[in-house]
Amino acid sequence: MTMKNQSSQAENRKAQMERQNKEITETLSHIKNKILVMSGKGGVGKSSFASNLAVSLAGKGFSTGLLDVDLHGPSIAGMMGVKGLLDVNEDQQVIPKAVGDHLKVVSMQSLMKDPDQAVIWRGPAKTGIIRQFIADVRWETLDFLIVDSPPGTGDEPLSVAQTITGAKAVIVTTPQDVALADVRKSINFCRTVNLEIVGLVENMGPFACPCCGETVELFKSRGGQVTAENMGVTFLGTLPFDPQVVKACDEGTPIAAGGHTGPFVNALDQVVRAIVSSL
User: What's the CA gap between 227 and 181, in Å, rounded?
Assistant: First the structure.
């Protein structure tokens, strides 16, 4: 390859990047609140919380988008009951899947013909697709864009922080020590990349035994609140453990979708109201 060809390719890449940056800026100008849902480790119910948060916001009349950037293990499509590939309009924009009147969903799962296909990508490829999820998706005007990221502080949350201007983080944890140690890393990650933290949510907290009514602690209690206080982060509340949350997500209808009552639904509503009032 000649030096002239290399220079021409570099100029083309630069021009494409500049066009995409303009498209990203234009898209984000129509989205009022951007929330990145993070967790320090896996298994804390981050995706189920992100799904229920989006459904709850939509249920309150807010125009809401739910974006799954967990590229290697996308679960949002299944939790939301979304099936099939995403459509593309005449302007080559991706059309999100509509769930009800006020919620739109985009997941990596909806881009793959084979749902069991493994995504084997390095950092630059993951950054590229996340940028496309913003630039090339017809989100239109949204009150909230909820972004579900994979656990940890790797490429995906970093790409979101660098791409989605004005994004803020909600961090999900469980009360046990091993999860809280990783949460402190997530908090420090946000501070390092200047990502404002809305607050910390403690999931799978104490619940009343259905047989005797006594309080059961699967993962201790108050760990999230104490960590939030020690790290100078707002504590948004505790969500009690509830097997119905898992069942509802497996059925593709998150528990916040309606028809459910009980301690978890009540606690979730308080957390969602705390998030809305803080923005």
Answer: 9
